[in-house]
Amino acid sequence: MTGQEEKVTVLETTIDDMNPEIYSYLFDKLMKDGALDAYVIPAYMKKNRPANLLCVICHAEKLETLLETVFRETSTLGVRIREEKRRVLYRSFEPVNTPWGEVTVKTGFAGEDKKEILQIAPEYEECRSLSEKSGIPLKKVYTAALLAFEKLKK
């Protein structure tokens, strides 16, 4: 079996009457409050009103906290809740050195033995921070972290 299976809770609501500037703050708060992921999908509601479908994925123990956040921070009057299964890759996090500082690289593996690497991704926020501090383009820092990881694994 590729990855490990787990149960997650999905909160979902359509919002058609909220200032879109609020979403950035909302996503930050949802993640801080324990969401595994949060996103919106453009949608059309009755009478062809443009809207956003807000989806929040979490573990069951974070449900009440995240429901409160959604109700307090959005204009919704109701939230659909369902339990789903998902598969996630086994992961490891390793620091690598770039010319501008250290970056953590996240690696996703097919199996628990961590032999077959399927995904490699430098941590975006760390790369962004180094880019802002050094004045080096973000894509250059990101690429340097990938190359440093490849050298580490040889």
UniProtKB/TrEMBL annotation:
Q: GO: which molecular function terms?
A: lyase activity
**Listed Gene3D superfamilies:** mk0293 like domain, Transcriptional regulatory protein pf0864 domain like
Q: Which domain of life is it from?
A: Bacteria
In terms of Pfam families, this protein maps to: Ni_insertion
Q: Which UniProt keywords apply?
A: Lyase, Nickel
Concerning InterPro entries, the annotation shows: Ni_insertion
- In Swiss-Prot or TrEMBL terms, this protein is called Pyridinium-3,5-bisthiocarboxylic acid mononucleotide nickel insertion protein
What organism does this protein naturally occur in?
Pelotomaculum propionicicum
